[in-house]
Amino acid sequence: MTVLCFRNIDVSPDDPVEAWGFEGLLTAVERGSLPHWRRIVAAVRRDPQGKVATELEEVLAVAQREGVVDSLQRNLARARAGDEALVAARVRRAVIRSDTTASALARTVGTSASRMSTYVSGKVTPSAALLARIERTADALALDSYARAKNAARPHR
Predict the structure, then answer these.
(1) Radius of gyration of the chain (CA)
(2) Higher-pLDDT residue of 157, 22
(3) If DSSP states are collapsed to H, E and C, what string results for the chain?
(4) Given 62, 94, 101, 136, which residue has the most CB atoms within 10 angstroms?
(5) Contact (Cβ atoms closer than 8 angstroms) between residue 105 and residue 98
(6) pTM listed for this prediction
């Protein structure tokens, strides 16, 4: 393993990646080796939207080591795509739970059917507020559907 030394910062390459900051990450990208890059990728996977991922994005915009930059950019995108897939799965579950169609749920939530389709497919990620509204509306529709089914099953007198 290449010996990596940080200069002008108060952390060591042995410290957690989260402590390195911009300068430490830049040094690791520019002068580090595979074990250092693996530690960076592991930190990004732990929190794809967090401090390390955000700083890494800035580092990759200025770093000169082309192959390393390309690899780390792919890993960052892959880690972030995982979060987007989780959100898309939550939207799909909400549609199923609502016991209606995606376009009907979209109307009730206050968005278009085409926009809801992009949320369901994962092409677009809704805001946290909209995701909460989609899930809340789906739950309310599911309760309404359950109550209607229960009433329909009651014997009429």
Answers:
(1) 23
(2) 22
(3) CCCCCCCCCCCCCCCCHHHCHHHHHHHHHHHCCHHHHHHHHHHHHHCCCCHHHHHHHHHHHHCCCHHHHHHHHHHHHHHHHHHHHHHHHHHHHHHHHHCCCHHHHHHHHCCCHHHHHHHHHCCCCCCHHHHHHHHHHHHHHHHHHHHHHHHHHCCCC
(4) 94
(5) yes
(6) 0.59
Tell me the C-alpha distance between 88 and 73, whole Å.
22
**How far apart are alpha carbons 49 and 80 in whole angstroms?**
7
Would you say residue 1 has pLDDT above 60?
no
Q: Average pLDDT over the chain, rounded to whole?
A: 92
Q: Are 65 and 29 in contact (CB under 8 A)?
A: yes
The contacts of residue 118 (CB under 8 Å, 6+ apart) are 124
Q: Are 83 and 49 in contact (CB under 8 A)?
A: yes
- Confidence label for 57 from pLDDT (cuts 50, 70 and 90): very high
Structure tokens at 108: 């009730």
The tens digit of pLDDT for each residue in 63-109 reads 999 999 999 999 999 998 888 888 999 999 999 999 999 999 999 99
